[in-house]
Give the backbone structure.
Amino acid sequence: MKKKIILIGTMSLLLFNFVFLLQAQANFNTKSTLKKEIKMMVENIHWLGHDAFRIDDQGKQIYIDPWKLSAKAPKADYIFVTHSHYDHFSEDDINKIKTDSTKIVAPADVAKQIGKNAVAINPNQEIIIDQLKIKAIPAYNIGKKFHPKANNWIGFIITFSDGTSVYHAGDTDFIPEMKSLKVNIALLPVSGTYVMTADEAIQAANTFQPQVAIPMHYGEIVGSEHDAQLFKVGFKGETVIKTVEK
């Protein structure tokens, strides 16, 4: 009887270890897949200078704050605008890339100016457009007057069909709303003056901990690559410094 008990106990332990290893392998595979998806998304994010980006999502072209675009810029399927300042809401650049089917998402004051095909979105609002899940995150200054909270200007979290999320912060300081963000990739201003400094962006990123951060808002108007390099030194995750594409 004693031998049977020992044998049963041994078999139970082996079964437990086997199940544990299977679960560990499943978790490893999930994490590995996520990392691969994030890496692929980073490769498909194209910095166009300042706060302007183009994201290639399986052939769909997504622009955020298009400005100073090349005449050869691909036509847009979606355009996101964070606020009404000329270097973010450029009607000339929007007209270069929009078609009759282009969908535009913007805060209310911008959407009103665009009119047709524009969807107004408010801070903290979530919407779904086609394959994209979109959440508007407040974007404003603390102790500066350039981007008042009362204007209801925004950044965007865009979640793609594979579950990968990209946060474009817009023009903002390190605000309390950032502390609870959960995103894979963050596009963050680092130049100071009108937005976060590199040090403030480091504090923000190390608080909500995206896997990857891409510095922006430098090289035009204010800031330089030095700000991006400072950010890279201080951020605990992976920093990708993009070269401007035109």
Q: What stands out?
A: Helices lie at 2-43, 91-97, 108-114, 198-208, 225-234.
